[in-house]
Specification:
By secondary structure, the protein is of the alpha/beta class. The chain has three domains: 241 residues, Glutamine Phosphoribosylpyrophosphate, subunit 1, domain 1 (4-Layer Sandwich); 187 residues, Glucose-6-phosphate isomerase like protein, domain 1 (Rossmann fold), CATH 3.40.50; 147 residues, Rossmann fold (3-Layer(aba) Sandwich), CATH 3.40.50. Helices cover 36% and strands 23% of the residues. It has 20 helices and 26 strands. The structure holds 5-amino-5-deoxy-1-O-phosphono-D-mannitol (M6R). The site of 5-amino-5-deoxy-1-O-phosphono-D-mannitol (M6R) has 16 residues, from helix 10.
Length: 612
């Protein structure tokens, strides 16, 4: 969670830091702060709320000439973990002398014991944060060498961190360190940057170095020195970012979420590019690094993830069983990490994550590896912790997803899971003929998504009719059950409408008691063998006065039963999950817009959940 940006060079630091914070705001937006350094020492600014509030403060407090003179600084946008979102708890945090300051992403787990020890030494803490324990500890160790003080302090720290540290006594450097929270260094011409996410660097440089856990670095305008925890120099390769600045801007859309919904024909095309073998009815997924024999020997797949990625995994479960005839299950990553999962070397764990940073998913991967199981990643962010920890898998190539509500990542994940199912299927029972049929359908996905996007205006009208309700139900069966869960998640997270997703057959086992006249029930009623059953479930809701919004295959609407209709293109039940999810994303988006919600940055949420 939390975003970090640091700059050292010859240009004015303030606009670079503020620009970076704006890019990183999706990681947390409770409060923001920055520290600027020049020969007179450190100057800090903090504000509660979004980065715009910090900008107002800077405008009032710093003359334009003063802005020009600072060429070194660090900044932070916060998602509160320890201590309320107040100005005092906003980063940067200082040491006792107030000559050293730190911005931090992660959690210092033993902060209480550090705090108590330091209090006994006479420290009076300003904030309630875990980070201040670290900043003060660095100060305790400081004897004129900031890097060494950081090394020594971190030896006493348990937990996760990505940090950037400044000292007024060493104005020509920023010390950075990473363990469990991402950090990437950007190398420019006579300048260096550091950020928790490459999207904050892309306007300044394409040349980056991803730090690994345990790395401690010193950056100056023209050098990067990285060492391990034993203080031995190490070399980390320079990567070229495959990202342009336009990809992290709104491009004329009112919100990132809408832009990302509309990007899906292209993002799914990117996920599929070069990966479908239409003539063989197979997929080409070199990143899995598995021979046909190895594929055929897998007994079971276990898909782990959280939130939207978990829902994608649930669609994958149906696909793996149906297409490949392979036993499959889905586990919430936080659950997998703490139970005693029964897995062995015949199993394949697939860790699904947009950000590649989710702490629980990362821990689940480590647990699976401990048990000797093969682990693959299904990740969007290249260079992320999960991508590196798994070492093999498939990138979904959705491009940067800025809106907190995940949209194009979901469809990319499902598209790749369908390709994996195809590959596993062809290594066992799936005939070439059936493989070709499925491959052709998957290949049509960009057009199938377009079909739904063309209904944007109609869906906005449906949203108008449901936006007044504070409750909604989403029901579906088979692979549409996880889509119902995902539709409900999208609606609740951005519009704050209480929404529940249920298996359609489950409604009458209890939840139907909550239905009152007018409650919207979104029924995923595409063409499947159980369609009649789904319609019966919809009838049961209609009989109780529910407002039925049906998501139906083209040409199969039941106008007598439905109050509103959203149409899906003709396609098979697995592939239909993707256009159906897009329809529900648009519905949630318009409800949230009509209700005047903060769509890209919903309350209490952050994009990457790097804490347990
Ligand atoms: O980055 P990840 O895919 O691992 O993130 C998992 C969840 O935190 C994420 O999907 C979350 O549920 C989103 N807010 C959903 O829109």
């Amino acid at each position: 969670m939390c975003g970090i940006i640091g700059y050292i060079g010859t240009r004015p630091a303030t606009p670079i830091l503020i620009g970076g914070l704006k890019r990183l705001e999706y990681r947390g937006y409770d409060s923001a702060g920055l520290a600027l350094l020049d020969k007179n020492g450190l100057t800090t600014f903090k504000a509660v709320g979004k980065v715009a509030r910090l900008v107002d403060k800077l405008r009032g407090d710093l003359s334009p000439e003063k802005h020009e003179s600072y060429t070194v600084g660090i900044a932070h946008t916060r998602w509160a973990t320890h201590g309320a979102p107040t100005e005092i708890n906003a980063h940067p945090h200082f040491d006792k002398s107030r000559k050293i300051c730190v911005v931090h992403n992660g959690i210092i787990e033993n902060y209480r014991s550090i705090r108590e020890k330091l209090q006994k030494l006479g420290h009076k803490f300003d904030s309630d944060t875990d980070t201040e324990a670290l900043s003060r500890l660095i100060g305790v160790h400081y004897k004129g060498d900031l890097r060494l003080a950081v090394v020594q302090a971190l030896q006493q720290v348990e937990g996760a961190y990505g940090i950037a540290v400044l000292s007024a006594d060493e104005p020509n450097k920023i010390v950075v360190a990473r363990k469990g929270s991402p950090l990437v260094i950007g190398m420019g011409d006579g300048e260096c940057l550091v950020a928790s996410d490459a999207s904050a660097l892309v306007s300044h440089t394409q040349r980056v170095i991803y730090l690994d856990d345990g790395d401690i670095g010193v950056i100056t305008p023209d050098s990067v020195d990285i060492r391990n925890q034993d203080d031995e120099p190490i070399t980390r390769g320079i990567s070229e970012l495959d990202l342009d600045a336009g990809a992290v801007e709104k491009g004329g859309f009112e919100h990132f979420m809408l832009k990302e919904i509309f990007e899906q024909p292209e993002s799914v095309r990117n996920a599929l590019r070069g990966r479908i073998d239409l003539s063989e009815g197979n997929s080409v997924l070199a990143g899995m690094q598995m021979s046909p024999k190895e594929l055929a020997e897998i007994h079971r797949t276990i898909l782990v993830g959280c939130g939207t990625s978990l829902h994608a995994g649930m669609v994958g479960e149906y696909a793996f069983e149906d297409v490949a005839g392979i036993s499959s299950e889905v586990q919430q990553a936080a659950e997998f990490r703490y139970r005693n999962p029964i897995v062995d070397h015949h199993d394949m764990v697939i860790a699904i994550s947009q950000s590649g940073e989710t702490a629980d998913t990362l821990a689940a991967i480590r647990k699976a590896k401990e048990k000797g199981t093969m682990v693959l990643g299904l990740v969007n962010v290249v260079g992320s912790a999960i991508a590196r920890e798994t070492g093999r898998g498939v990138f979904i190539h959705a491009g940067p997803e800025i809106s907190v509500a995940s949209t194009k990542a979901f469809t990319g994940q499902v598209a790749v899971l369908l390709l994996m199912a195809l590959k596993l299927g062809r290594s066992r029972r799936l005939s070439q003929e059936h493989g070709v049929d499925l491959a052709q359908e998957i290949n049509q996905l960009p057009e199938l998504i377009d079909f739904v996007l063309k209904q944007n205006d109609a869906i906005a009208k449906v949203a108008e009719r449901m936006a007044k309700s504070d409750h909604a139900f989403f029901i579906g069966r088979g692979p549409m059950h996880p889509v119902a869960l995902e539709g409900a998640l999208k609606l609740k997270e951005i519009s704050y409408v209480h929404a529940e997703g249920y298996h359609a057959a489950e409604l009458k086992h209890g939840p139907i008691a909550l239905l009152t006249p007018g409650t919207p029930v979104i029924v995923l009623a595409n063409q499947t063998s159980v369609l009649d059953k789904v319609w019966s479930n919809a009838e049961e809701c209609k009989a109780r006065g529910a407002h039925i919004i049906a998501v139906v295959t083209e040409g199969h609407a039941k106008t007598d039963l439905t109050d509103d209709i959203i149409v899906l293109p003709k396609c098979g039940p697995l592939v239909a999950t993707i256009p159906a999810a897009v329809a529900l994303q648009l519905l949630a988006y318009h409800v949230a817009r009509i209700r005047g919600c903060s769509i890209d940055q919903p309350r209490n949420l952050a994009k990457s959940v790097t804490v347990e």
